[in-house]
Amino acid sequence: MQTSPQRSWSVRSPADLGRAIAGVRAERKLTQADLAEQTGINRSYIAELEAGASTLVVERALRILRRMGATVTITVPEGGDDAEQ
């Protein structure tokens, strides 16, 4: 039985966020270079994020949300090719 790619990621840490970015990118069949070109963000920064590199803003935002009992989930809708340009 073949499983479909994960379409939802629970984000509790920078590493979780990195896995979500890498997962969505893979679903869209994009390389890091493709994504960098499309977003105007340096490829090395995308690689750092996918590797789970922590940034102060991400770390603090997730801590605040956890403290309030909130969860962050990244979901790619079926047919999620209608990405915002």
Description of the structure:
The protein has 85 residues and is mostly helical. The chain contains 4 helices and 2 strands. α1 packs across α3 and α2 packs across α3. The N and C termini lie far apart (35 Å). The model has no long low-confidence stretch (mean pLDDT 88).
In summary, what is this structure?
With about 80 residues, the protein is mostly helical. It is built from four helices and two strands.
Summarize this structure as a short list of keywords or feature phrases.
mainly alpha; 49% helix; single chain; 434 Repressor (Amino-terminal Domain); 85 residues; globular
Strand content: 5-15%
- CATH names the topology as 434 Repressor (Amino-terminal Domain)
Our measurement of the CA-to-CA distance between the termini, rounded to an integer number of angstroms, reads 35 Å
Fourth-tier CATH superfamily name = lambda repressor-like DNA-binding domains
The average pLDDT is 88
How many beta-strand segments?
2
Tally of structural domains: 1
Count of individual helical segments: 4
Judging by the overall fold, what is the CATH architecture?
Orthogonal Bundle
